[in-house]
Design goal:
Keywords: Amino-acid transport, Signal, Transport. The chain is 35% helix and 21% strand. It has helices at residues 10-18, 43-60, 83-95, 108-121, 151-162, 177-190, 211-221, 241-245, 289-302, 308-327, 332-339, and strands at 30-36, 66-67, 70-78, 101-103, 124-127, 144-146, 168-174, 196-203, 228-233, 254-258, 276-279, 343-346, 349-353, 360-361, 364-370, 379-386. The strands form four sheets. Strands 2-3-1-4-5-6 form a six-stranded mixed beta sheet, sandwiched between helices. The protein has a four-stranded parallel beta sheet with strand order 8-7-9-10, sandwiched between helices. It starts with 9 loop residues before the first helix and ends in an 11-residue tail after the last strand.
Length: 397
């Protein structure tokens, strides 16, 4: 894809990046803490998220990194993907650093540990990119807003892609909140599609050898009627798709299916031409001015397209800026009032914070994988955009 013309001089980008945790903080500054897993298994996701957050704030302020004359200062804190460290880091951000808003984290399990801290300090936490339904479900509180998609949005979109009459589906997911919430939502979303979820397999997040897991899945599916799918829900390193594909699931009539992912993980998709699924974002799919700017600027600055979590981080930055402008304040209660039901523009087009649970309602994209010899990864070609009004996302709190 050809990069477009930059909206602002490169100097703005450099200035924006210098604000991250290095600028002197003054009383009237807008203080944002990015509390996320900078180190650990999801480091690639974290880096994208932070790049996107800074680009979102830059875009929303026309490169000035100021709102209503107040400078934006972003403080970074590393959760190391550990819930206890995350809780302490968020408490430090709210208490000692006196930040107005926090953003993060990457891991759903870590996010669940952080939610009560936001409630205790009565400060906003913008959850991005953690996905588990329970974050805006049973564990939610009024100080939590989420810009990332949730498990139900993933599940409903993928159920559209795979929920064929008479199909038999097994799932493989990580054995923690992200995986289990994802399977539960997917199972619910399949109701009424004519497909049957016949087997669930869970594996530890650090699994390297998937032989036993795959064999149990093959045994469960091989005698089932209709088209047979193995739907994989996985995040981070050790992605099992290539390893299971090497075991020749086609011997049992089993097709691998999965949702979108970062570009590095989608290299495995080149082995699966024609595979269908649903994704949160792929840089060539949305057509709007914000995504045009993001793609052009990311190519110019990094020589690569923006990735899955870059778009998510940018969305969080845009939402924060829009909320502060709308509220005319960084006071928590003013921000909550402004954000309930708030519509805002993102690299994916329009999003809206649902008033009941503060989950961002948004489009998802049904795709089919195309193999292009000039592209390192399997290319998700758009089959259908699933808009906000096309999906009934349950309220679970």
């Amino acid at each position: 894809m050809t990069p477009r013309i930059s909206r602002w001089p490169a100097a703005f980008a450099a200035a924006a990046l210098l604000l991250t945790g290095t600028t002197a903080v003054f009383a009237d500054d807008i203080k944002i803490a990015h509390v996320y897993g900078k180190t650990g298994a999801l480091e690639a996701y974290a880096k994208q998220s932070h790049t996107g957050l800074m680009m979102g704030l830059e875009y929303a302020t026309d490169g000035t990194m100021e709102i209503n004359g107040r400078k934006i200062v972003v403080i970074e804190k590393d959760t190391q993907l550990k819930p206890d460290i995350a809780k302490a880091a968020l408490a430090e951000a709210y208490g000692d650093d006196e930040v107005d808003i926090a953003v993060g984290p990457v891991s759903s399990g870590v996010a669940l540990a952080m939610l009560p801290v936001a409630e205790e300090y009565e400060k906003l936490l913008i959850v991005e990119p953690a996905v588990a339904d329970s974050i805006t479900g049973e564990n939610w509180n009024r100080y939590v807003f989420r810009t990332s998609r949730n498990s139900s949005q993933d599940a409903i979109a993928n159920a559209v892609a795979l929920g064929q009459e008479g199909a038999s589906i097994a799932t493989l997911a990580q054995d923690y909140a992200f995986g289990r919430d994802g399977v539960a939502a997917f199972k619910e979303a399949l109701n009424g599609t004519g497909a049957n979820l016949v087997f669930e397999e869970y594996a530890p997040t650090d699994t390297k050898d998937f032989t036993a897991h795959a064999q149990r899945i093959f045994d469960a599916l091989k005698d089932e009627p209709g088209r047979k799918f193995l739907f994989v829900i996985w995040a981070g390193g050790g992605n099992p798709i290539s390893k299971i594909q090497a075991m020749e699931p086609g011997r049992f009539g089993v097709e691998i299916a999965t949702g979108g992912n970062i570009l590095a993980a989608m290299k495995a998709y080149k082995e699966l031409p024609g595979m269908e699924g649903a994704t949160y974002y792929y840089y060539e799919i949305p057509e709007n001015p914000i995504n045009d700017w993001l793609v052009a600027e990311h190519f110019e600055r990094h020589g690569t397209p923006p990735d899955f979590f870059t778009a998510g981080g940018m969305t969080a930055g845009l939402a924060i800026a829009e909320a502060i402008k709308k509220a005319g304040s960084t006071e928590t209660e003013d921000l909550i009032a402004a954000m309930k039901g708030m519509e805002f523009q993102t690299p994916k087009g329009k999003m809206m914070f649902r008033a009941e649970d503060h989950q961002a309602l948004q489009s998802m994209y049904h795709f089919k994988i195309k193999v292009d010899p000039d592209v390192e990864w399997g290319v998700p070609e758009l089959v259908r955009e699933l808009k906000i009004e096309d999906m009934e996302i349950p309220v679970r709190n």
